Amino acid sequence: MSPSDVDDAILWRSRSTSAWEALARTALVRRRGHLVVREPRGWRAVPLWPFSQVLHTAALVGAVEAPALRDALEAYRRGTAYAERPGSRRRYYDDNAWIALALLAHGDPEGAARVLDLLREGCVDLPSGAVGVRWVEGGDALHACST
Asked: Tell me: the pLDDT tens digits for 36-52?
């Protein structure tokens, strides 16, 4: 690694940490002892997809909030995977694919494998021999941009 590469790595690490701190100040709140991700100035917990991005980022930057965010994910849990919002029943396959990636980043391969079981249920063999992934559990539409 050249000195220039080291300087770039330090610069990008610093930028990542600054961006995380800004996000944490505006989007993370504690309610009844639990961490919640919300829209800035909002009161409701965000849907699973934005939550997954915050969860993944926390792991990547090594945020002190990472374990609490991992715990906060349980509010979205429904069965073996995660619903679109806490208390909701609807589960989206692409959102759960992002959660599986975030769980891997958090060092939780068992949790990721559990979610993978749901993702496999959403796979559809197509007449062409390809495989599609349903968008939402119980739906017919295929949506594989993330999965």
From this structure: 999 988 888 999 999 99
**Which of 70, 71, 67, 99 has its CA nearest to residue 83?**
99
The pLDDT, as a whole number, for residue 2 is 74
DSSP helix/strand/coil, 142: strand
The pair phi, psi for residue 109, each rounded to 5°, is -65, -30
Q: Where are the beta strands (DSSP E) in 1-147?
A: 28-31, 34-37, 77-78, 81-82, 123-125, 131-133
Q: What confidence tens digit (pLDDT) does each residue in 42-91 have?
A: 888 999 999 999 999 999 999 999 999 999 999 999 999 999 999 999 99
Question: Within a 10 A sphere around the Cβ of 43, how many other Cβ atoms?
Answer: 9
Query: Contact 27/38 with Cβ under 8 angstroms?
Result: yes
